[in-house]
Amino acid sequence: MKRIYFTLTILFLVIAGMAYLYFSRLNIVAGNKDSALEIATQNAAILYRVENDARILDILDGQDLFFKLIGKEKAGLLTAVRQTFLSNPTMAAALEHKTVYISILPGNKHTIDFLICTQLTKTEQHLLITLINKRKVNENTLYAKISGQEGTFFVNIDKDVLLISNSSEALKVMPVIERKEDNPFVNFILSNDKLTKNSLANVYINYNILPELLKSVTPNINKEEFEALRGLNAYTHLSYNFSKTNIFFSGETTLKNDSGYLGLFLNTIPQKLQITGLLPQHTASYALYNVGNYSEWLVGFREWFLKQKGNTDIAERVQSQHTKYHIQLDDTFPKYTYNQFMTFQLRQGQKLGAVSLVNGDKLNQLLLDLSDDIDGTVRQFKEDNILFYYFGTPFKKFRRPFFVIKDNYLICANYASNLQDFIRDYQDNRLLVNQPEYTALFNQLPNTTSILYYLNTNEGAPTINNLIYPSFRNHVNSDNGLQNFGAFVFQISANKESFQTNLLIPSKLPTLGKDTL
After folding, report:
1. Where are the domains of the chain?
2. pTM (2 decimals)?
3. Tens digits of residue pLDDT in 114-147
């Protein structure tokens, strides 16, 4: 009996000791709260994190693509900031090995601002306050103004956080923002800390406020091009993979709560890219969706679809067509749809959609009564919203489209001429998959995916220029800006509760001249 009591006593002491250590550790963590991260995430839809380590910075300096991506002005200012703070040996030593956050923020009058934040000790605060006091505009300002050949930036210290920005307005706003005790974005970043801390650099995206950032870039945030972002409650973390020829990040996207249309793909099995083989060579952009088993996917989609405002009336009208045209659409589309669909846009702005089929000839026959013949090949649906009802958001704007079925693909457009142009390109083999840059691009990515967004910077330039404010067009069209890159690819693949995510921005392949042939 004494042994039992002795054992219980020892066990109690061990548990008590572990509890003490655990709660002591909690107090230490709470005492070292990352105020810099809290401030950096307040209004940031995109957050960049890097360690101020000489080894890491030397590696990143070996790739100038980042500077071309963000533009000459912002790149110059970031260089000026680094030179200012690292040229002073004492200051450089104080900031060595610090975690630095760079927030991308909406600015005034259609601009984008950056805000740099890093945590300080009391000793570092005193050192930097001396610098700020010497550079203050006047005694009433909270910030210092530092000017150089590359431009002007502003510096402030909010308690234990160093703040640097290209905008004095950003520094005026940040200290008075009420810090959230439970910031979901902060929690997401901290929960992925172990996965990202060994990376050269990391990017975090908060889709909840990404539309607010985009409003600084485009007056067209309510257009269909941004449909997938509206109301999206999700976060992405990406780790940088070094390359001298590409900007490549990989990581994970997590959907929260009601995850909308994208949530319907969480349990799908990623598929090989097949439907992209019909894209014309002048494709500017496309959005591709892999459903795996369409009949199974349709069950969840239909439940979600009917919960959306106004969709009940659409469902009733489509269902009424069963008796009107003597065709059971609920038996037809599940039976003859394969596993992929997409929407795409061409250089001149033409918008089309495509669905992969199991037996295109049979479906074409079944749709004869439900459509009108246009030219012997192209037909048009007689009723509205059929494709929207069976495939969802990507086909919302194809209300009563023209369509053609070729080689087990249904291709649709809002204008018959768009389909006629498409058919000529397809028959003459003028296709995107035949372009060397496109082939090289996808040789660098996994060959299976759930959802993929693609933008060609050259073919897409006219569309981008029409979407954005004039102040951003020089950067879009400059060879030292976005035209230095061939494309943007955002690839996500279902992984049960999240999406494995890749972001690839390749530099353009060099053009072969006559002497090189």
Report:
1. 35-198, 259-506
2. 0.87
3. 999 999 888 888 877 776 666 665 555 667 888 8
